[in-house]
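Page header: ASSEMBLY MODEL / two components / 425 residues total.
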Amino acid sequence: MNRNLLQVESLELYREDHLIFSDISFQIESGDHLVIRGQNGSGKTSLIRTICGLTQADKGKVLWNEASIDESLFNYYEQLSYLGHKNGLIPELTLDENLNYGLDQTDKDGKDQVINGFRLTDLKHSLIQNLSNGESRKTALSRVVSSKKPLWVLDEPYANLDSDSISYLNNCIGDHINTGGIVITSTNRDDSIATKTTELLIGS
Amino acid sequence: MNIYLKIFVREIKVSMKRWSDILTGVIMFVLVALIFPLTVGSDQMFLIKIIGPVMLLSALLASLISMQNIFKPDFLNGSLEQLTLSHHSLNGLVLMKILSYWATSSLPLVAVSVFIASTYYVTGTSLIAVVITVLLASTTLVNITALAAALTLSVRYPGALMTLILFPLSLPILIFGSKAIEYSIVGIDSSGPFYFLTGMMLLSFSLGPIATAFAIRISLD
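Prediction written out in full:
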């Protein structure tokens, strides 16, 4: 995998005259796992959405390999796999269909391996609407993990997961950064985090 | 499989699972359009006079009742967000969504309009004119409703706002569509209104998806 670099320069975001965060700068590169920590309502999700280009910052910019993401959005999105609070799964389709009809290219063996790792193999042909919250979350995480994209941005990935799945996810994150990937996660908990991380504390 | 084709197939599949949404639009269309021949009786002259506006208004009401279904479910479950984060052209992906929505919401109306027109004593070439008008008008309406739905995605109760956006934009379609049907039934040269309707349809397909994709990005911000 090529070396990649994500730079965030003095980001500032307002929502209806209310300051969400200001002066956030950091730089991460291949092999880094950044954990964004903060209380509920401290702006973790807003920051993550800004990094992904879903929300426009009022000040500052995000650079991918030294090019502003606004100018090379498609290039950036080719490298980015994002999972927000919402799972992005269609409830009327099965687990397998959701992964196959996704927009990312995945290789079948890699996908099966991840589904197996999250212990979802038996549920492959179940509709998403019949799965539990945790199972849906794992399906959404399978999409990111099997996406083969260098940058993973995960908003509260550990929500609803059992301990086995947390450790499997941590293994996946570990493998990903060891092979030159970049991972950004957000959490409001102290436990359940993979080792070898850089931390960013936001909010008071 | 080509990614755009893949999304089109996915959307058709999902629409089939949400078949009650499709049916709601069709039922609305049939109810509004059938009420006139049922209540007015067999006054053939009157029915022929009103079939144009009735058909187009029914199509408009049908699209109004089902327009929330085009983006709202995907907005709520997060798959619209994933669509905008794709490295494929969002305009193209939105066009696929609009096309699949057209296939599942407008095509049934076109099929049903054949039967409804016969209750208005419209037959032969006039019947073909009615069907083509419904086809052109509903295809244009799909693009307008998609834009209105995308603009109001983040509004909690968008009903009134959607209607306000939709009605002025769809008025030319209603007027020229009615004229196209009237002229072809009466036997006047109807090519003028048909050219206009075709032009509007092409315009809506060339600009609609771009404006809709832009509105989606704004709604997600």
